[in-house]
Input
Amino acid sequence: MGAYEAVRGFFESAADRLGLDASMRALLDTHRRSTTVQVRVPMDDGALTTFEGYRIQHNNARGPYKGGLRYHQTVAQDEIKCFSALMTWKCALLDIPFGGGKGGVAVDPKKLSEGELERLSRSFIREIAPVIGPYTDIPAPDVNTGAREMGWMYDEYSRMFGDTPAILTGKPIALGGSLGREQATGRGGFLCLDRIAHHRGWTREKIRVAVEGYGNAASWFSIFASAAGYRIVAVSDSKGAIHNPEGLDPTAVLEHKKATSSVIDFKQADTIAGDDLFALDCEVLVPAAMEEHIRDDNADAVQANLILEVANYPVTPKADEILKSKGATVIPDILASAGGVVVSYIEWVQNLERERWSEDRVNGRLAELMYGATDAVLGRAHEKGNTNREAAYEIAVDRVAEAERLRGDW
Ligand code: GLU
Output
């Protein structure tokens, strides 16, 4: 089953339980607009290379399309369609006034120089400019993109249409970015974990957490969780994983990664195979890298009782079933990975008002929205005897369907 079919399945079963009629189902089951573009990049050696780029807009009943732009060699239409729909459900669940979109370029950014990446970013935003806008569709960072890329794209868009900071979120602070945005996905995941720990009466110091990945979301998640008292016992990257049952110092791991380009061979830990991280003895497992990393072939080995999806779609439906049969609780991506888009919303509000919020104000609002959504999901799951993913989808799909109905476009 492809990624798109899987997320569609989560929607379909929520639609069944909510009793959505056939027209509403058809409307929410398909994307409003899919744009494929040719991204032309003059390379350093004088050649002109073209890459395939996408911006796929799923639904905008609750507000402008919103979602990231990723650079990765696996980017393809089906994958972007999946994440575009996930963004619709994520924004609805967090109750922020956006719909869902996603985009990306099929490219391995590690093979490009900085100059080539800048030209790629400028070319891509020029190509999708006709379908985006500060009240239409607001892109943001995603896998392998960050403030630097958003800065180039904001500049390129503003050269065409005049200064428009609200066209993109996740910009550098000096170009209208929000304080706290860089840390937001990791902080949101941490707030979600901490809320659950609070409800379960856990003592933070006793909770061992294994984190798959060490990019932006994974590293900030580890830093916040460790500072609060949780024990981060393992982290990983594409080269392997490191494990220390006593707990790692996430900031020292980050420095080691910056210096050596990997987490492996960190001195105060054992280096293990990347896949072995999933089977470690721990209470919480946090997949915070790419999609479909927990599958039917490795889900059975998972020891953790709580799986927090800080990545988008890291657990396949079959793996979800296996984890459920083992009695483990999965906290779905549309909740646990939502911190980034929540602070994107706060950045957009600041840009439209030409205002600047203090970091405390940003983090306070993020916590309010994350705790509210976490309580709503846990409460509904408990009340209906559903999984957290089922509860989260029911809340989200119901809100989008209500907005569609109230717009009256029948
Ligand atoms: N790429 C992030 C996500 O998957 C953030 C999207 C945004 O901020 O618009 O949620």
Observations:
- The longest strand covers residues 48-59.
- The chain has two domains: 3-165, 184-331.
- Residues 184-331 form a domain with the Rossmann fold fold (CATH 3.40.50.720).
- The first helix runs from residue 3 to 18.
